[in-house]
Design brief:
about 375 residues, Spore Coat Polysaccharide Biosynthesis Protein SpsA, Chain A, 2 domains, 7-stranded mixed sheet, 7 strands, about 50% helix, elongated
Amino acid sequence: MSMIETKKAPRRKLSAPDVSLVIPTYNEKANIAPLVDAVRSALGDIPWEIIIVDDDSPDQTFAEVSRLAREEPRLRCLRRVGRRGLSSAVIEGALVANGSAVAVMDADFQHDERILKQMYEKLTSTGADIVVATRYAEGGGIGEWDATRAKMSDFATRMAGMLVGNQTSDPMSGFFMVRREIFASVIYDLSQQGYKILLDIISSSHTPLKIEEVPYVFRTRQEGESKISVMVLAQFLFLIIEKLTHGLIPPRFALFSIVGGFGLLVHLAILNGLKLAGFTFIAAQLTATFIAMVSNFVMNNEFTYRDRRLTGLSFLAGLILFCVVCSFGALANVGVAEIAIHQFGNWSLAGLAGAIMGAVFNFSAATSLVWRRPRKRVVSVAA
């Protein structure tokens, strides 16, 4: 009987990383291989690891990372199923990082990976808590942005200053490096909402942070589509609200309430329009209520719960359930208002108490029943 010996390639001995690079992704498959090569070249002899946190990308970014990781053991993938969002992705990636420094950057090459080594050297040589890659210091720039995007960025930076003052010239930067212990110290205070995790970290710290900066020029995306949208700005504004109110107003509830306010305007417009058309009050009220509920459902599905968006038959089932939820919410509104009017004898106060109760009930029920979890999607992964 003959024996067949299989020779295995010698495994490269790896040292513990000094830098853990956390990169959140969604449909970035084409960028992964060149990004790994670029980081390898940029960090040189500094021990590193890359943690790709992928939100179950339809283009199977996670499969590409797994393929590359067979040749590059410093590359890892954390695939999230049923969860979406840049900030929460960064947090989960940082929690599994092994490096003493955690760097955060995008996968689309808009962040200049060539300054990573300079950022690490500044973090270790100055004793800084965070090193921010800034577009707004001397030597930095916003690249080929048009005037509209430049104005939006300037507005956002000014708004961020309300939270963190002048600690950094670029509090909206998505490219930074932080000591792991600093990240750990604020983990329970982070919002996990929206896209501006650096702002969240700085504003959540209970003690002043030492922040250094390295300038860079923002580059043009190489592959894929930009994630910038009106919702990015909206989520940023809600992060500001949450931090200024110390978590009293969650961002999703704020958006849900704004949609509800818009629904009230729709209700009143339809009601008065039908009045002019000769409808009876009851008929007009029922019609206006139904249309307002539908408009609220559509807007909440598109904006408030866009990470759990319902489609197809799930959309119809969700609409019916949402209308039922809102009906019970109306009963809660009236019930609390009735109690308040007997307690305080003030119509305005009673109306406000009822409205708040109805909004809280509708939000809680909608979150737990209508949009309780993201849609499941079965993806086959090639071996």
